[in-house]
Design goal:
Elements (H helix, E strand, L loop, with lengths): L1 H4 L7 H8 L10 E6 L6 H15 L4 E4 L11 H4 L7 E7 L6 H17 L5 E7 L1 H7 L6 H17 L4 E4 L12 H10 L6
Parallel strand pairs: 1-2, 1-3, 3-4, 4-5
Helix pairs in contact: 3-8
Length: 196
């Protein structure tokens, strides 16, 4: 395939990101900054996130885990980004949490405001880790409907704040194997700039 043989010159990537940022285009990311909110992912989930991001945006993607933002400390998020802008800004939530306007909504609002101020054309991705919720309830077949309702609630909530949520069980991403293409496609569909 041509896309496997030709690499875009590094100097053109910022322009391409600004131009195609709202599309499903899977442009490589040289840097990604991940901020989790009111959630400390397990080592398995952190490794899963890294594997998925590198499969979706390139094996050379540098992933920075920014300090987590604590519940009730939402305003810190507006000033927490420092240094050069990342190609990809990521918010990580837990499916075990019920999304709340005053907290989760505020973080998403602040993210939207940061995106609007961004001059580097960085893209935004909202991830929701299913691992904590599934660890608690996943073995119970009687609550499959409730699990899907929780996923749907998060997708609707995030969408109402101008982003698309990508819900995945990051704690179960297989090691040693390729990340399934369906997972990569799901990330690409969710990675876009905020709605204006």
């Amino acid at each position: 395939r041509a896309s496997e043989q030709l690499a875009a010159p590094e100097s053109l990537l910022p322009y391409a990101r600004r131009t195609l940022g709202a599309s499903d285009a899977a442009l490589p990311a040289s840097t990604a900054r991940l901020t989790s909110f009111a959630y400390q992912p397990t080592a398995a989930s952190e490794q899963g996130v890294q594997r998925v991001l590198r499969a979706a945006f390139g094996a050379e993607t540098r992933i920075e885990f920014a300090p987590a933002v604590a519940y009730g400390d939402e305003e810190r998020f507006s000033t927490s980004a420092s240094g050069a802008a990342s190609d990809l800004e990521i918010l990580l939530f837990s499916l075990a949490a019920t999304p709340e306007v005053e907290n989760h909504g505020r973080i998403l609002q602040l993210a939207h405001e940061r995106w609007l101020r961004s001059r580097a054309g960085s893209r935004w991705l909202v991830l929701v880790d299913e691992a904590p919720f599934l660890a608690r309830f996943g073995g119970d077949a009687t609550i499959a409907t409730q699990i899907e309702q929780r996923r749907s609630a998060w997708r609707d909530f995030v969408h109402a704040h101008g982003f698309e949520a990508c819900t995945l069980d990051f704690g179960s991403i297989p090691t040693g194997n390729e990340v399934p293409q369906a997972t990569v496609d799901q990330v690409h569909r969710s990675c876009r700039r905020a709605s204006a």
